[in-house]
Specification:
The protein has 325 residues and is mainly α. The protein has a single domain, classed as ABC transporter involved in vitamin B12 uptake, BtuC, CATH 1.10.3470. 78% of the residues lie in helices and 2% in strands. It is built from 13 helices and four strands. Helix 2 packs parallel to helix 7. The longest helix has 41 residues.
């Protein structure tokens, strides 16, 4: 009898969490639609096809980072190093490409840099149990430093047209980065919804100790989560290098903040445990539409930073209010 009652309570709590996430995402979707309508009315050229494609292409890089960030935050962690990993991966891939290596090798090298950096972050977070904030804050600094040292502080120009296609090419009139972003989100959606690994991610974020007691290999799962985040940052770095025609050591500055804000705006709890990748993409769109609309309205770039910062604070405040509720 008692077991049945506990099972019923557990199912009720799970359903409550799912409803909370659902209604939060619906709220964010309404906000996005409202923001889109406002920009369509007041921002000149906002609805033009070229501008829409430009917005999608620009947000694709932040969106790829935010996909990995979603996994990290679902476990109750944070990854501040993704912007720096993006820069280092781009620099390394272009450096190898310019040595006469095949573009595929250069792409794999950039992705390898990302997954290696993510693995180190995950190991330090999971095994010695260092706070993820401190670990990734430190790696954000030394990885950016490596990018500057390797490149000498200057952009490395891409000479291979095949490599450029990754970031600046088009397929049926749609920029290549949009296809890559879509593929990433389909894969992450499948992982979180249909795999045992995805369920373990949610379990660790909900209660790490309880997850460990149920037999989940918490350390191994955390290492995988940060490695995936690093891998996606590496992929974003390679694609961005293709778009900019260069590997830039200063690329990706503040991208991690936009990714975190998008994840929280999308309904993923900052303390972990519940959220959805669908919500993350809504959060990405909100930030991208806001930035693009402000640019078209000729709002000073300094004020744009003020607005973006306010959105990040509002995202965290929203999460805190949601948690109290």
């Amino acid at each position: 009898m008692q077991t049945n009652v506990q099972a019923t309570v557990g199912k009720s709590q799970l359903m409550s969490q799912k409803l909370k996430v659902y209604f939060n995402q619906m709220g964010m979707l309404i906000i996005f639609v409202f923001l889109f309508i406002v920009m369509a009315i007041f921002a000149p050229h906002f609805l033009e096809v070229n501008n829409v494609l430009t917005v999608l292409k620009q947000l694709s890089f932040t969106a790829i980072l935010a996909a990995g960030m979603t996994l990290v935050i679902l476990t109750g962690g944070i990854d501040l190093s993704v912007g720096s990993i993006l820069a280092l991966s781009g620099v390394i891939s272009v450096l190898i490409l310019n040595q006469g290596m095949h573009p595929l090798i250069a792409i794999l090298a950039g992705a390898g840099v990302g997954i290696t950096a993510g693995f180190i972050n995950g190991y330090l977070t999971a095994v010695p149990k260092l706070p993820s904030f401190i670990v990734t804050l430190g790696s954000m600094t030394y990885i950016r430093g490596l990018a500057l040292v390797i490149s000498g502080g200057y952009p490395l120009v891409v000479s291979d047209s095949t490599f450029k296609f990754l970031g600046a090419g088009n397929i049926l009139g749609i920029p290549t980065p949009i296809y890559i972003m879509t593929l990433v989100y389909v894969i992450i959606f499948f992982i979180l919804k249909y795999t045992m690994f995805g369920r373990h991610v949610f379990a660790i974020g909900g209660n790490e100790e309880a997850a460990r007691l149920t037999g989940i290999k918490v350390e191994r799962t955390l290492i995988k989560v940060y490695a995936i985040s690093g891998l996606l940052a590496g992929i974003a770095g390679v694609v961005l290098a293709g778009r900019l025609f260069s590997g830039q050591p200063t690329a990706g500055i503040e991208y991690e903040l936009h990714a975190i804000a998008a994840v929280i705006l999308g309904g993923t709890s900052f303390v972990g445990g519940f959220g959805r990748i669908q919500g993350t993409i809504i959060g990405v769109f909100i930030i991208a539409v806001l930035n693009n609309g402000l640019t078209l309205l000729n709002v000073d770039s300094y004020w744009q930073k003020v607005v973006t910062g306010a959105v990040i604070v509002a995202a965290v405040l929203l999460d805190r209010l949601r948690s109290k509720a």
